[in-house]
User: Fold this.
Amino acid sequence: MHDLETRELRYFVAVAEELHFGRAADRLGIAQPPLSRAIRQLEQRLGVRLFDRDRRGAALTDAGRVMLREAKAALDAVSAAARRTRRAGDPQRPLVLVTKAGASHELLQRLLDALAGEPGAAPVEVLLCEVGEQAGLLRDGRADVALMHRPYDDLAGFDTEDLHVEGQVALLPAAHPLASRDRLTLAEVRDVPGLPIARWPRLDGSYPDGPGPEVRTQSQLAQLVALGRTLLVIPASSRAWQWPDHVAVPVVDAPEVTTVIAWPPGSRSPAVASLVRTAAALRGNVAEV
Amino acid sequence: MHDLETRELRYFVAVAEELHFGRAADRLGIAQPPLSRAIRQLEQRLGVRLFDRDRRGAALTDAGRVMLREAKAALDAVSAAARRTRRAGDPQRPLVLVTKAGASHELLQRLLDALAGEPGAAPVEVLLCEVGEQAGLLRDGRADVALMHRPYDDLAGFDTEDLHVEGQVALLPAAHPLASRDRLTLAEVRDVPGLPIARWPRLDGSYPDGPGPEVRTQSQLAQLVALGRTLLVIPASSRAWQWPDHVAVPVVDAPEVTTVIAWPPGSRSPAVASLVRTAAALRGNVAEV
DNA sequence: ACGCCCTGATACCCCAGGAGTATCAGGGCG
DNA sequence: CGCCCTGATACTCCTGGGGTATCAGGGCGT
Assistant:
């Protein structure tokens, strides 16, 4: 019995995401009938019903949900194979290091300085992304290493090395009554009247309940903070987030944030290994912020 | 630009492993010319030379070596997708737990007992494998969870939970002079005349140098030990390895072995999660052996 | 109640491209 | 010198993926 072809996986993912054969076919650039046929063949090859068809569209079965997760992972692995191979063939490929815009600013600065100071180090390209995007970029080969933050990022499936541990601070408008305090607790910060905490999407894309605004990108957040519309609890080192009319007050019982360097497991590339080694060597002599 | 198809990956892997187009074609059940063509197309689609052709066969380029690793991972992910989906469609699928034959005997026993005692727990199927096979089984979906041993197994790419830490013992024929000692060091054990330590393959399949016999399977080893031809240093709990005419002497400076339970990252299956929880609950009340 | 329309399924045809056979090209080695 | 083993090329064939046209059935508006 043959393996599935990536074409079948792509078709399946399209239907699973659109929940509509016609739209999925459109998105794939093919006609609807061959798509229906392909999915039906896929189902009978697997011996499992993936969709419940219905006059108003298609719905995923339980098995279909498993398939969606697995198919995406498999497609990522396939395009990672292509991308990494291409890059391996390129003699002076730069390493791509991805990190959240604005996070671990100083650490990144030091890391880049340290790499610049090393004689034979490969050039490094820095890619800034939004919250939660690093894992995908790393998984599908568009990046080689990432700076991520425990416990907020999804580190599943990567090798990691801890680089730095720090506390978190609350960011308040200078005029705010709490701004003069020299320490706060999460409980105090949780419901400051008129300054709700912004809500980030969870790993699955849904938002937690609460009064604060839903934010998805750093720039949305930046604007809300500048407007004095939201309160922010962030790692102490996130300097880029400081605005002139805001002050940072340590939140003593907020979970500590560990900055880690992460890379795809089994990637024994010497360039990645030496970058990780350089990063690990910074540990300890990074000044506390 | 399209994704690669798994057919192309399979073809590439066959050639990369055989290093010979004819044999690879044979193994794939196709003729040699279409295989040559497919590989050439693959190369020009990637823009990278994967093989150095030669009148005596084919050799992998650096990029080819990257591709081999990535292609295998991608193919594993694809067949994992199929396998897991099939299993998800099966209403009373048992969980498959894989472990090395003979290792962590008592822990496994306790885990199975604990699971049997739980009301709603899914049935668990135990799969015993040879050294180093767990990772592959887990990665390609033939198993759901594995008991593995740090630092000897390759845990890259899995989520893990530590279950148990223990020292190692040397296994000696009862009549041996060292058998009466109550402790040994690695240095003493390293070259006992006439009792060389068996050599296991490394992760890449090659064997370290040394005087001892090369072993690949537990049964090979069992026979060598029974014959008194090799000396064994193993975790203290590996009871199944004890033969009536051998004694176990602690090796004080051997690295400690941590038994971990491992599962594919992102597998949020409730059945796996509850099994892991049960296993973690055993931690601490496992008697030291 | 009828019929439109939107859903996915079926029927049938076409052709791109994957696979086969035969053959070539070149270098090591008897 | 010529055999043989390697992979590459030339061509032919035909499978199977894709297209168009059409069907089937149920919600819903009139």
Q: What stands out?
A: Residues 20-22, 32-33, 36-37, 40, 53-58 of chain B lie near DNA strand D (CB under 10 Å from a C1'). Chain B has nine helices and ten strands. The radius of gyration of chain B is 23 Å.
